[in-house]
Request: fold
Amino acid sequence: MTSSAGQSIPIQRVFLTGSTGYIGGRLAPRLLEKGYQVRCFARSVAKLRDRPWASHEAVELFEGDVSDEAAVIEALKDCDAAYYLIHSMEASVGEYRSRDYALAEAFGRACAKAGVKRILYLGGLGEIGEGLSTHLASRREVEAALAAGGVPVTVFRAAMIIGSGSASFEILRYLVERLPIMVTPRWVFTESQPIAVRDVLFYLIEALTVPETIGKTIDIGGPDILSYSDLMREMALALKLRRRIVIPIPVLTPRLSSLWIHLVTPLHASIARPLAEGLRNRVVCRNDEATRIMPHSCLTVRQAIEASLEKMQVRSVETSWSDAGVMPGDPSWAGGTVYIDRREATTSASPQAVWASVSSLGGGRGYGGADWLWRLRGALDRLVGGPGLRRGRRDAEHLRFGDSLDFWRVSAIDPPHHLELTAEMKLPGVATLTFDIEPSGETEKETRLVMTARFRPRGLFGILYWYMVVPLHGIVFSKMLDGLVRRAEEVPTR
Reply:
């Protein structure tokens, strides 16, 4: 392997946190392409096994929690460099800030004890000094906490990252698509310097071969400095929409803005609020050190937006902001009341055709029938703070463990036999929906599809909730089952 300067360097083993997340999930395969050995550390290794790169001979998968310092030290052994790509933005302000600091401090100590030579961290741009948003101030604290252990830290600070599936990009796209007229906070005219996700990945990897980056804090950004209003205009042009009318008013606080984002976009208010707060600050690179020591031509904002939309159009979104959601634990169904709704159907379609039908549920294709009821349920969920249906799916046809699917998450998958979805909508209990595909037993040419909804209520309201929705199940689930069978039978046989 050679560096950009042509100097030979040894193959290194790198330690990667956040490999189930948006940046980490894209960084891993590119590190492998460069010849690095990659050791991924994740809370759920099962979420990684379905990734195309996870079976690469140079990949090692370690399961554990970053809060377990002893486990991190053990996993870090023999690693030369470590990427720290962890943020806990979904907690309340006080919680995520203190938790991020504690985790980073422990990680820095673990790297020192394990003999890691350097740490690389992706933080946020923002003017130095007072006035930083809580979100950006937390990123600064994480930088200091990582360095406290004594291992040199390379910090990359970036503003909005433009890429298919990124949280910032999805907020921008949904706002522009859905709102021809927008009432916005005053920060809509604050300057920022966005960067394409592919350029972020370039800098994160190139730094490993450039000694001048060790221990440095480096601002990275694309060639354009724009306000959020300008970004909306660029997005409208890329989507071939009329120019959006923006009306800024002073009374919209970050909290109110995040609630509005929650209602209009797929992102939850708890994620939107730190992003909205961060937009209050001017986020522009202070110098050109990044391009000076790592020469590279970054995409313009227009190029980055067009590339992202093209990825979405051809269904080639590698990772999404929703990938890093915490996997719900396997519910313990024993020892409590569990309500079950089990339905089955037999079809002449092959198991593979039935699986293709089941695994294409949700998103743009809907649920096979009574979709208006699903949309109503999604709208009600959004109103009470849930994800609703707007998260959609990462891919229109294929699912993998840990994928979000509207207000569900894939919690078990065994193609072409079994799929389990765990509800992430606001519920007074725990709900799963499973699909089992098996031979009918009567003839080899028939397939049985068994669909089972399970609900473990929480308290009296949970029990009342179940009995309120049971009549609707007769409509929704029966139509879903019929629709899945119909789709399967429409799949051409080979």
